[in-house]
Amino acid sequence: MIVFKEFRFEAAHQLPRVPPGHKCGRVHGHSYLLKVSVDGEVDGELGWVIDFADIGGPVKTLVGRLDHRLLNDIPGLDNPTCEVLARWVWEQLIAQLPVLSEVAVWETATSGAIYRGQ
Ligand SMILES: Nc1nc2c(c(=O)[nH]1)N=C([C@H](O)[C@H](O)COP(=O)(O)OP(=O)(O)OP(=O)(O)O)CN2
Ligand SMILES: [Zn+2]
């Protein structure tokens, strides 16, 4: 069974390695959507894989480090593509949430990246 929880945050970024004139070379903002998934067995007594609150706790703390920031200022996010951000979120969470199975980041309604730890 896979369970997930979604989180939203607003942040600005700029992609420093795009070719000259690329729109993403300019500082701009996104309303990010982050989806954190956990894979596991459903506990026979509790009827759940994990309490959603146990996902929400560590992720909300992490989102607090991203919300209303310029992502480029955050260590490890100097080139904050969706792909880099999804892997960064995984790396920040995995110690506290070892049952983590997937991190998905939407930068726009139609564009995003999914990271599954490899
Ligand atoms: N593989 C990636 N490509 C792009 C990334 C990224 O992180 N990974 N990021 C961007 C920009 O940040 C851009 O803001 C979002 O891209 P895009 O989908 O092109 O945004 P639009 O809403 O402008 O696209 P539409 O064509 O209007 O849907 C670019 N590429
Ligand atoms: Zn962007």
Automatic annotation (TrEMBL):
It is an enzyme of class 4 (lyase). Keywords: Lyase, Metal-binding, Queuosine biosynthesis, Zinc. It comes from the Bacteria. Binds 1 zinc ion per subunit. Its EC number is 4.-.-.-. Pfam families: PTPS (PF01242). Signal peptide: none annotated. InterPro entries: 6-PTP_synth/QueD, 6-PTP_synth/QueD_sf. Pathway: Purine metabolism; 7-cyano-7-deazaguanine biosynthesis. Its cofactor is Zn(2+). It catalyses: 7,8-dihydroneopterin 3'-triphosphate + H2O = 6-carboxy-5,6,7,8-tetrahydropterin + triphosphate + acetaldehyde + 2 H(+). SUPFAM superfamilies: Tetrahydrobiopterin biosynthesis enzymes-like (SSF55620). The keyword Nucleotide-binding does not apply. PANTHER family: 6-PYRUVOYL TETRAHYDROBIOPTERIN SYNTHASE (PTHR12589:SF7), PYRUVOYL TETRAHYDROBIOPTERIN SYNTHASE (PTHR12589). Belongs to the PTPS family. QueD subfamily. This is 6-carboxy-5,6,7,8-tetrahydropterin synthase. It comes from Actinomadura graeca.
